Amino acid sequence: MKRRDFLTNSAVAAASVLLADKFGFAQSSEFVSHRPPLKQRKFVSKAVEAKIAEVKSAIKDKELAWMFENCYPNTLDTTVEIGERDRKIDSFVITGDIHALWLRDSTAQVTPYLSLVKDDKDLQNLIKGLIHRQAYSILLEPYANAFLKDLNEKGWDDLPKNKPGILERKWEVDSLCYAMRLSYQYWKATNDSSAFDDEWQNAMRLAVKTFKVEQLKDGKSPYTFIRKTTVMIDAPPFDGTGNPVKPVGLIRSAFRPSDDSTWFPFLIPSNAFAVVSLKHLAEIFRVALKINDFAKECEDLAAEVEAAIYKYAVIEHENFGKVFAYEVDGFGNRLFMDDANAPNLLSLPYLGFVKHDDKIYQNTRRFVLSDNNPYFKRGKCASAVGSPHTGKTNVWHLGIIMRAMTSVDENEIKQCLSMLKRTHADTGFMHESFNPDDPKDFTRSWFAWANTIFGELILKIYNERKMLLNNEF
C-alpha cells in the first residue's frame, strides 16, 4: 500500500472491527472499552492510566468519555515497540495500519503524554528513546519521511531506490521540524538534555544543512523522487524535481504533510513551522549545550525564512483581506487552500508561529473555514477541512480537531465536539477521512495520530475550559 487507501462501502463493516480482530477487544453497542486487553498492550503507563480516570470522570457525555478512553492511550496501546540500540533505549512508534515510523506522526502521537513524563520515568524513557530513533533516522536519510524498523526491511519501489531502513523518501520540511519539536518539548517538560548526544547533534546539524540546501540559493538540489503510480499527486512533476521556484529565502518542500506533492513548492505552513522549530533548536544549543555559533546559525535562518513568509506569502484575498497563502513559488504565483494535515494554515497558533488573535491569521482562518477553501466541505454530519490526499469529497477528523484546538470560541469548540461524536462511525476511534454525509464510509480505521490528538484536545479542554465537559454533545 503506497497510499492510505480508501475503504470501499463493502469494507466498512470489516474495517470497523479491524482493531478488535487484531487486538482482541470485545465488540459491543454499549460503551465498553475498546482498548486491547491489558496483556496485549504494547506499553502501559501508570500516569496515563491515572489521567484517563481523572479526565473521564469529568466528562458528562458518556459517549465522549468512552471515545477519550479509547483514543488517548491508542499510541501506547498499539504502536510502541521498545528496544535498545548502541546501548541506548530505542523507541519505534508506528503510524498504525502501516508498520513504519513517520517523523511527523510519531512526534504527534506521543506529544499528549509529555505533560505526564515527570510522573512516570518509564514514559519519559520511551519518549527519550523516540528522540534517539528520530536522530538515527535523520542521519540515515534527511530527505525521508518514513522509516522501517530494521535495515533488512525493504521500502517502497521508488526512484532513486530507497536505502535500507527507508520506507519512502518524500521530502517534507515538516518531518524535520517535528523531530526538532519533540526534542524541544521533551527538554522543556523534563529539563533533561542527556538525549542531545553527538548523534542527535549531528542529526540536527544535518537537518539545518538540508533546509539551507532546499532554499535553492545556488539553484541546485540533490533531491528527486519518482514513483510508478497512477495517482498524479504521489510524485512531483518534471522527472521528480517539482515545479520551478524563484529562490527568495523560503525552503522548498517537495511534499505536503499529507504526503501529496506540492504544486508551488514553497509550502507556507511548513516554512512557518520551520521558523518556530529553528528558534527552539537555537534555544537548546545555546542554553542546554552552550554551543552559541550553531544557535546563531539557527536563529539567522529562522529570521530569513520568517521575513520571506511575510514578504512573499501574505496576499490580499478578494474576500478576506490579507491572508497567508498555502503555497507560493517566489515568482508571484500563489495557491489559496488549506489541507487537514498539520502543519496547515489553521494550525499556525498551535505551532506557535502566530497568536490566535493575529489579524492575518484571523482572516486566514475565516477563509480556511469557508466555501472559498476548495477542501472545506459541508455535509449532513460534519463541515470540515479535507485533503486532496483522500479525494474531493471527504473531510478529516484531524481538520475538526485542529479547528477546536485553535479556537477560543466555546460554541465553536462544542460544535466540533458534537461533530467528532457523531462521526466516529460507532467505532469509538478517530479515522483519517470520512464522507461528511455518511461517516461509516471512512478511510483508515487504525490511525494513531488522529486518535491521540483527539485525546490531546480533550486534555486541553479539561485543563483550560473544564466546564465545557459538563455538557452533552
Second rung of CATH, namely the architecture:
Alpha/alpha barrel
Order of the strands making up the biggest sheet? 3-4-6
CATH topology, anyone? Answer: Glycosyltransferase
Terminal residue distance: 36 Å
Mean pLDDT: 94
Give the C-level CATH assignment: Mainly Alpha
Question: How many separate domains make up the residues?
Answer: 1
The rough form would be described as: globular
Please report the number of helical segments: 17
Helix content: 40-55%
Structural class call reads: alpha+beta
Radius of gyration: 21 Å
Number of strands: 17
Q: pLDDT under 50 segments (min length 5)?
A: 1-21, 23-28
Largest sheet: 3 strands, antiparallel
Percentage of residues in strands? 5-15%
